[in-house]
Design a protein that fits this description.
This protein has three domains: 122 residues, 2-Layer Sandwich (Alpha-Beta Plaits), CATH 3.30.70; 183 residues, Trigger factor, C-terminal domain (Trigger factor, domain 2), CATH 1.10.3120.10; 95 residues, Chitinase A, domain 3. Helix 2 crosses helix 3 and helix 10 packs across helix 11. The chain contains 13 helices and ten strands. It is 46% helix and 20% strand. Strand 2 and strand 3 form a beta hairpin. The chain has 450 residues and is α+β, with helices and mostly antiparallel strands.
């Protein structure tokens, strides 16, 4: 808490006193306090005397500047620092005396101290909520179950083949599944409209990339053919100026290309990192990676259910100050993410308020997890942390180097420990709640087919 002068030493002007008088939430508290003006004056003198020993001014040797000149130049700063230190001390003493757990930074309200022997002020702040853990034994958690079989493995390999699709030009009309390279011009009332023109545009027939009527009009065209047709945009089209409007497109097909999947051979295996091209080894590695991915996705679904259960059993009032802080951090992270994707975030209006709901959930869960861990001794053990780091490292070429990197990075170690603690909480809840195992479809777990 920094101060600039006596009457605003606590950062909140007197005309805000009424607003701060009413509690903002059930967690808000107010402490009325005072500090002695004589103590402030004494501290100011001590600070100035200490400063006078080293202060430099033109025309004087260090430590020889007249005290009156030091007082005149540095007096306001010394008084501000003395008041701030006194306020901090008395507030800290009161907090310790009443055993309060402060959430966030206090807001300080100054009172009129002119002509008084005391500087009076009020501190308005939030405390952490008292949490009494509820019983999870009556709550049901559906645990999704999936065992990777040859069917899931074959489906995943097909996805890997499709990801490596090549296209071969063909001399025939385009059909669903083909890639068409086209030039097109769109006109509304005879005039071109923004976004309605493209050159050497590659579209895939039948995959929903384009509006259904556009796709249907192109289907069956051959290279060198031109067609003009009308198209009506849907009423809910994202471009509001085109929604529900009828326009005319002129399309010229430049190439028709047929998809060609790679053969399941040694060359394909080598493309997946199997240097000797052994297909059996390729299947083993794909299966191992797939099982690891399935396990992670199952864990995420279970963890989400566990967290929902904890919040349902233990409603928590999250301190507003912590939610605001978390919202700001999430907004800053969103901007950094945009920049990492090569987009300039300088003029992007990312507002912390957009993240309030997510931030409230995060803060509430953080408070709950802390209490569950403390009450049930679910702290991270060194061997658990090492197991998590080993799991992170196993997919890299040099796992030992990755492990060393983690142990040399305090922030990464903290992240691994936090993950272990979350896993411990999940296991504790599953051991105490009603758990029902239920098979889940592969496509559903992986999201529309891996």
């Amino acid at each position: 808490m920094q101060t600039n002068q006596e009457n605003s030493a606590v950062g909140v002007s007197d005309n805000n006193a009424a607003a701060l008088g009413a509690a903002v939430s059930a967690l808000e508290r107010r402490l009325d306090m005072s500090v002695s003006m004589a103590d402030i004056d004494q501290d100011v003198q001590q600070r100035l005397k200490h400063l006078a020993r080293t202060v430099r001014m033109a025309g004087f040797r260090p430590g020889k500047v007249p005290f009156k000149m030091v007082e005149q130049q540095y007096g306001p700063q010394a008084r501000s620092e003395a008041i701030s230190a006194a306020v901090d001390k008395v507030f800290g003493d009161k907090v310790r005396e009443q055993k309060l757990r402060i959430a966030g930074q206090p807001r300080i309200e100054a009172k009129d101290s002119n002509g008084k022997a005391q500087i009076e002020f009020s501190a308005v702040f939030e405390v952490y909520p008292e949490i009494k853990l509820g019983d999870v034994s009556g709550h049901e958690i559906v645990r999704p179950v999936l065992t990777v079989t040859d069917a899931e493995l074959d489906q995943t390999i097909e996805v890997l083949r499709k990801q490596r699709t090549t296209y071969v030009e063909v001399a025939r009309p385009g059909v669903s599944g083909d890639r068409m390279v086209i030039d097109f011009i769109g006109r509304r009332d005879g005039e071109k409209f923004p976004g309605g023109e493209g050159t050497d545009f590659a579209m895939h027939l039948g995959d929903g990339q384009m509006l259904p009527d556009f796709d249907a009009a192109i289907n069956g065209m051959s290279a060198g053919e031109t067609k003009t047709f009308d198209l009506t945009f849907p009423a809910e089209y994202q471009a509001k100026d085109l929604a529900g409007q009828t326009v005319q497109f002129e399309v010229t097909v430049k190439r028709v290309e047929q998809p060609q999947l790679p053969e399941l051979d040694a060359e394909f295996a080598q493309a997946l990192g199997i240097t000797d091209g052994d297909l059996a080894r390729m299947r083993d590695e794909v299966r191992e990676n797939l099982e690891r991915e399935v396990t992670k996705r199952l864990q995420v679904r279970i963890k989400n259910q566990v967290m929902d259960t904890l919040l349902a059993v233990n409603p928590v009032t999250a301190p507003k100050s912590l939610v605001e802080s978390e919202s700001r951090q999430m907004a800053e992270a969103a901007l950094r993410d945009l920049e990492s994707r090569g987009m300039s975030a300088r003029n992007v209006p990312v507002e912390p308020s957009w993240f309030t709901e997510q931030a409230t959930r995060r803060v509430s869960l953080g408070l709950l997890l802390s209490e569950v861990v403390k009450e049930n001794q679910l702290f991270a053990k060194p061997e658990q942390v090492r197991a998590v780091i080993d799991d992170f490292a196993v997919t890299y070429e040099d796992p030992a180097e990755v492990v060393r990197w983690y142990y040399s990075q305090p922030q990464r170690m903290s992240e691994a420990e936090a993950l272990v603690v979350e896993n411990n909480v999940v296991e504790w809840v599953l051991a105490n709640a009603k758990v029902i195992d239920k098979p889940i479809a592969f496509d559903e777990l992986m999201g529309n087919g891996a």
